[in-house]
């Protein structure tokens, strides 16, 4: 578990599949922490996929959305699987209002 300003990130790994559970706020202050975790996973041997679990996020802003799109692109570049666990209504609402709900792979959803 890693705690940073405004966000807590817990990495659970199973056979190279990493799930990063995000709790707190994914915003301009905390995005660099997520990006550092992702860079570390991209450089690690054995990484096969990354799932971002948004279910415990309280807030996400446009910087957080941009970071998630970047993670998606980095996973594609490295040949990793990528998936999102949906967040609470206020988090999902931002994905819906920006149209990203249809562009990103949300688990258990017809979207993505």
Task: Give a structural overview.
The structure is a single chain. This protein has about 110 residues and is an alpha/beta fold. About 35% of the residues lie in helices and about 35% in strands. α1 (about 30-45) runs parallel beside α2 (about 60-80). The longest helix is centred in the middle third of the chain and has 17 residues, at about 60-80. It is globular. The mean pLDDT is about 95.
The proportion of residues forming helix, as a percent range, comes to 25-40%
Shape: globular
Total number of beta strands? 5
Major pleated sheet: 5 strands, mixed
Average of the residue pLDDT scores:
93
Biggest β-sheet: strands ordered side by side in the sheet = 1-2-3-4-5
Instruction: Give the termini distance in whole angstroms.
Output: 28 Å
User: Treating each run of at least 4 consecutive H or I residues as one helix, how many helices?
Assistant: 3
Order of helices and strands: EEEHEHEH
Q: Give the helix/strand class.
A: alpha/beta
Percent of residues in beta strands? 25-35%
Low-confidence stretches: none
Rg computed from alpha carbons, rounded to a whole number of angstroms:
13 Å
Question: What's this, in brief?
Answer:
The protein has 112 residues and is of the alpha/beta class. The chain contains three helices and five strands; from the N terminus they run βββαβαβα. Helix 1 (31-43) runs parallel beside helix 2 (62-78).
Summarize the helices and strands and which ones pair or pack:
Elements: E1 2-4, E2 7-14, E3 17-26, H1 31-43, E4 49-60, H2 62-78, E5 81-85, H3 89-98
Helix pairs in contact: 1-2
């Amino acid at each position: 578990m890693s705690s940073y300003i405004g966000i807590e990130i817990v990495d659970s790994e199973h056979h190279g599949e990493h799930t990063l559970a995000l709790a707190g706020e994914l915003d301009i202050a905390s995005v660099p922490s997520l990006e550092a975790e992702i860079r570390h996973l991209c450089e690690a041997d054995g990484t096969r996929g990354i799932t971002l679990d948004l279910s415990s996020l309280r807030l996400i802003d446009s910087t957080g959305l941009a970071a998630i799109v970047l993670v998606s692109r980095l996973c594609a570049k490295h040949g990793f699987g990528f998936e999102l666990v949906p967040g609470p209504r206020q988090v999902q609402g931002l994905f819906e209002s920006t149209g990203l709900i249809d562009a990103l792979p949300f688990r258990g959803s017809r979207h993505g």
